[in-house]
From TrEMBL:
<dbReference type="Pfam" id="PF04909">
    <property type="entry name" value="Amidohydro_2"/>
</dbReference>
<dbReference type="GO" id="GO:0016787">
    <property type="term" value="F:hydrolase activity"/>
</dbReference>
<dbReference type="GO" id="GO:0016831">
    <property type="term" value="F:carboxy-lyase activity"/>
</dbReference>
<protein>
    <recommendedName>
        <fullName>Amidohydrolase-related domain-containing protein</fullName>
    </recommendedName>
</protein>
<dbReference type="GO" id="GO:0019748">
    <property type="term" value="P:secondary metabolic process"/>
</dbReference>
<keyword id="KW-0456">Lyase</keyword>
<dbReference type="InterPro" id="IPR006680">
    <property type="entry name" value="Amidohydro-rel"/>
</dbReference>
<feature type="domain" description="Amidohydrolase-related">
    <location>
        <begin position="3"/>
        <end position="253"/>
    </location>
</feature>
<dbReference type="InterPro" id="IPR032465">
    <property type="entry name" value="ACMSD"/>
</dbReference>
<dbReference type="InterPro" id="IPR032466">
    <property type="entry name" value="Metal_Hydrolase"/>
</dbReference>
<dbReference type="GO" id="GO:0005737">
    <property type="term" value="C:cytoplasm"/>
</dbReference>
Length: 253
């Protein structure tokens, strides 16, 4: 089974399904999203969509309910293709975050993708405290900082029961991300939108049992993302694990 471990709701969802079919992907972990860059046909339209992302990173709750409804609808319409992860508002008081995690855990297979403001990865702690063995995915590229990655590592060690996934191979801090995952048994590494081919090769070589193929669609594309994993992974056993076996184990499929 091929599993894309990182994707966002598309508008319309049929565009996403076509991409998955082209890539030969059986299932995709699906996160809610407020911006929809796939809607943009011009640079100005893209800037408008990405302004929504800037607002959400600044802590605005506007559009969260609509994004969660989109996620509900996509997973309900295609339960054979999508594995939904629920979102929580990191800016709420800790008790409210814990309640939201508990509610999400009854409905979804995990929590994510969570994106704390830069320098505030500590906001993840109430989520991890409440998550138990529910997987949690945290945004690993900018605006995450090197200090944020260090905080994520410390929190993973503090809550060893919770599988914690660093997405986007840690962005520009990919070396530190690989080292953290290699040294921390409950940390996982997702590979989407990596900027360097050899960073993907090294990640798989170092932690083949906790590295996940992902596309970050619509920001990325599952076709070249899968091809990259296959290109840099000579071992058939490791390739099968990264392309789906590891994600199936993480999700309990």
């Amino acid at each position: 089974m091929i599993i894309d471990a990182h994707s966002h709701v598309h508008d319309p969802v049929e565009k996403h399904l076509a991409l998955l079919d082209e890539a030969g992907v059986d299932k995709a972990i699906l996160f809610a999203t407020r911006p929809h860059p796939e809607r943009a046909a011009t640079l100005d339209e893209l800037k408008g969509e990405m302004a929504v992302l800037s607002q959400s990173l600044a802590g605005s709750g506007e559009g969260r309910a609509a994004a969660l409804r989109e996620l509900d609808d996509a997973v309900a319409a295609h339960p054979d293709r999508f594995v939904g992860f629920g979102s929580v508002d990191l800016m709420r008081p800790g008790a409210e975050v814990a309640a939201a995690v508990e509610e999400a855990g009854r409905k979804w297979r995990g929590i994510g993708e969570l994106t704390p403001p830069p320098g505030r990865a500590d906001l993840l702690e109430p989520v991890l405290r409440a998550a138990g063995d529910l997987p949690v995915v945290v945004h690993g590229a900018a605006p995450a900082t090197a200090a944020d990655l260090a905080t994520i590592g410390a929190l993973a060690r503090k809550y060893p029961r919770t599988p914690l996934v660093i997405s986007q191979l840690g962005g520009e801090h990919w070396i530190a991300a690989i080292e953290l995952v290699r040294e921390t048994p409950n940390l996982w590494l997702e590979l989407s939108t990596a900027s360097l081919v050899f960073s993907v090769r090294l990640a798989i070589a170092e932690v083949p049992d906790r590295t996940l193929f992902g596309s970050d669609a619509p920001y990325g594309d599952p076709v070249p993302a899968r091809a990259l994993v296959e290109r840099v992974t000579p071992s058939e056993t490791a390739r099968a694990a990264v392309l789906g076996g590891n994600a199936a184990r993480l999700l309990g499929l």
